[in-house]
Amino acid sequence: MKTMKPHFKTFPHSHVLARALLAAMAVFAFSTAQMTASGEKSVPASTLNKLDQQLVLVVKKSRGETTLEPDVYKFGGRVLVEIEGSFSRELFDQIASLGGQVVTGWGTATTFRAWVPFAQVETLAGRADIKSMSPARPTVTRRLKH
After folding, report:
1. pTM to 2 decimals?
2. Fold for domain 43-135?
3. For residue 101, which phi and psi values (nearest 5 degrees)?
């Protein structure tokens, strides 16, 4: 009796295709694990709800939890933020004690700007008198000559 051998057609470079597929799966698994490890869980929900997504990145970057670069205006280790909340002497003093600086001549009784150190954004957002924080963009106003 004659035994039959199975007949498989192989692709000329199937081992290359298999390696590329495994590499792609590894990259996907690594990026998913990195996103989970630096996920929203690390910032308390009460604080997270007050922060713009770019400021969440600032917090994570200051903790070393991400390599993504936030799209914010920064200078000297501080970020320019727009704060919505109840402005008070206590809040002004805390911003100063954290190494920040309130921008004078800009804002209202409920909205103002401040330079805040990266590592202190989360601390400041945790205050009860702050409703929200977002990145501020410097504005330049100039009168055009006619």
Report:
1. 0.64
2. Alpha-Beta Plaits (3.30.70)
3. -150, 125
